Amino acid sequence: MTAASFIRNIGRRTARLLAVALVAAATTFFLFELLPGSLADAILGEDARPEDIAKLEAELGLDRPVVERFGGWLWQAVQGDLGQSHITGEPVARAIVERLPVSIELMLLAQLVGLAIALPLGIWAGYREGTSVDRAISGGAFATLAIPHFVLGILLILVFAIWLRWLPATGFVPFSTDPIGNLRSMVLPTLTLALVEAPIYLRLLRSDLASTLREEFITVARAKGLSDRQILLQHALRPSSFSMLTVMGINIGHLIGGAVIIETLFALPGIGRLLIEGIIKRDYLVVQGLVLFISVAFVAVNMAVDAVYALIDPRLRHGRTH
Amino acid sequence: MAAPTERSARASIPLLFQARIALPAAWILLVVVLGLASPWLPIPPPNAMDFLAPAEAPSMKHLFGTDLDGRDLFARAVHGARISLFVGLVAPALGLLIGGTLGLLAAYYGGLLRASILGALDLILAFPTLVLALALTSVLGQSMENVTVALGIVSIPAFARIARASALPLLTREFVLAARTAGAGDPYILTREVLPNMLMPLLTYFLTMISVMIVAEGSLSFLGVGIPPPAPSWGGMIAYGREALERAPHVTLIPATVMFLTVLSLNLIGDWVRQRTEAKEGGLS
After folding, report:
1. Fewer CB within 10 Å of terminal CB in chain A, N or C?
2. Which of A148, A275, A284 is facing B134, going by the closest CB pair?
3. Phi, psi at A54, each rounded to 5°
4. Domains of chain B: which residue ranges?
5. Measured between beta carbons, which residues in chain A are less than 8 angstroms from residue B137?
6. A284 vs B254, residue with greater confidence
7. How far apart are CA A312 and CA A291, in angstroms?
8. Does the pLDDT value for residue A178 go beyond 90?
9. Residue A42 pLDDT more than 80?
10. Distance between CA atoms of B277 and B285, rounded to whole angstroms?
11. Number of residue pairs across A and B with CB atoms under 8 Å?
């Protein structure tokens, strides 16, 4: 790839990112315009006095025309001001910054552990395709796919926190105060999220590896006298992992949804729990700010993943598939 | 030529073949029949509390035991099946109807219509699925109908994508060209020629989405932002039992098991149908 086309590529991606982010912002804003009555009605509830509603409407600028309000809201959001909770008075942007590390830690650990589960089992099942080992692993993965996040989390709490008493069921220890305690409090949440993601990766890796092993270059490698371990890890694994890696990228939306459920279940102070609390307390500005933040981050991560694939996969790099 | 060998091969594995599909099918049938018949079954009302019998273990009187307020868990599980079936069928039906239509139109027509349909789908895809469902229920309000609408909206893009992808190759096929040459109008070609030939992948996906939607409704209700209590949603029952997980694990484990078996059965049936239809389509081309 030449430098000019590389820069053009980045420019095109950035423009697309900005466009999608703008669309996401508009959708978020106008979604909350759908609330019956004005936002002030929704915040103050049905029994509110008209003068209080009028006062809050003026405070929130709700008496201005909708396009002007969208412009103002967007301009503030670009500057990092997402408004503030009308319950706690805390600025939404600050709440996000404080809670984001917890969510990111959970998702990163879960992807790592999920991969650590999926890789060996997927390779083993693909290598032994059709045998009882394969059937046991594949069957287990298929059954695990039918367990929702929250059920799996509760089962792990029941076994490891209540019956065996090995790990805490809920509660979060910040990494800065106690790194070991932090990791202990993250074990069950991470394991829950990882066990939901792992079967998806495992199944893809297994079937791709099994079909790679039927290819001619593997026969050639066998004929050269390479050991099975060398064939699997050095020759077969790389060409078999593309669809798994692609799905890991596409799966980020699923991962975020899972993190929301798991943070609520294990009482982790991440942005997912903030979102659920906001919805339950009808703290609409918090919900609106969070939905905007999550969708823009989601779109940005998706595009970053696309860009990384373009670097890894030579076919995409030269634009041949498009 | 191939038919006799195929038949004998199938006859030689009847037990395996039947167990793989008969057990899940029987479970789903049981859930559907009990769910539909629940108002007329000789069971207590799902919300009737008996404070003298809280958190009782399963017995002859209470088949699944009682929950923390002494409500009969069997009655709640059976009535909960109605909720799961409603959301699991209606939400993907909305997605199929709207997404399928949009996908078909985006495949057939170009220009501004296609651009605006694809743009609207991108708009939905700019949000993680669960977050959009949460935002929609937050705005629409919490009820079974609103949860269903929210989940239906969330499922539109996938149905549209499948519809468009299956319609595109059909548009250049001989039978469509023949219909057009014979003077058929767009509505006729779309509904009589293209639509019947793209229904199979859409219906297969619909089948897959039933269990996804049951889990999604359960998740929303578990989080406390789906169908509000005391409605016996399986997810809500699981969340409620959590408080007494140590003392009375059955209050959580029973709805969890019912939900797991239902989702697993639906997945098994979906997998079976997908394998058969894919094999069939492969055989045709």
Report:
1. C
2. A275
3. -60, -40
4. 71-284
5. 279
6. B254
7. 31
8. no
9. no
10. 13
11. 117
